[in-house]
């Protein structure tokens, strides 16, 4: 089971195992805001299984933007959809090939399926008559949130904004 960790300002910080979350709660570093059904059994007690915890002290996170692109980051930004045909992508392609002076930047890399990557090779889009389905650019701020928030659990939703990415202080969360 996974547990959403909220910073002291109620913004999502990370997702950890429920065991790690229980340790943070037992050490007095966090409070449980939402529980899962089955408790964690220890030899001396039953501990509620945390689904969402709130840290007592604010953790300052340094996020420099934009970071260098990575295969994982490009695939996540493009939601694993090929930038040329829209099918499921498993690799990354340079829009302007490196052999023709293209760089490895957010603006020149797209997620790509294997067949499109092979067909494109070191050709330009104009040579092939292709058009991009997406406009490659550096990812937005919420891309630096944990990947688990791309498909959040239902129990986390009251603590996230309507897109599942931001900060929301609900009556439940403020308690």
TrEMBL record:
Segments forming domain HNH nuclease: 69-118
UniProt keyword GTP-binding present: no
Keyword Amino-acid biosynthesis: no
CDD domains: HNHc
Keywords, comma-separated and alphabetical: Endonuclease, Hydrolase, Nuclease
Pfam families from the UniProt entry: HNH_5
MF GO annotations: endonuclease activity
Protein name (Swiss-Prot/TrEMBL): HNH endonuclease
Organism whose genome encodes this protein: Nesterenkonia sedimenti
């Amino acid at each position: 089971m996974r547990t959403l960790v909220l910073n002291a300002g109620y913004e999502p910080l990370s997702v950890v195992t429920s065991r790690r979350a229980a340790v943070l709660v037992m050490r007095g570093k966090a409070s449980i805001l939402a529980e899962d059904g089955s408790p964690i059994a220890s030899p001396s007690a039953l501990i509620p299984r945390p689904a969402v915890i709130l840290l007592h002290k604010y953790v300052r996170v340094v996020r420099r933007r934009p970071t260098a692109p990575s295969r994982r980051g490009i695939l996540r930004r493009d939601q694993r959809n090929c930038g040329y045909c829209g099918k499921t992508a498993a690799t990354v392609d340079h829009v302007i090939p490196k052999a023709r002076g293209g760089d490895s930047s957010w603006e020149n890399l797209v997620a790509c399926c294997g067949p499109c990557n092979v067909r494109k090779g070191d050709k330009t889009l104009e040579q092939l008559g292709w058009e991009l389905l997406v406009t490659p650019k550096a990812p937005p701020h919420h891309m630096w949130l944990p990947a688990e928030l791309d498909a959040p659990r239902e129990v986390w939703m009251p603590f996230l904004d309507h897109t599942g990415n931001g900060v929301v202080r609900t009556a439940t969360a403020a308690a």
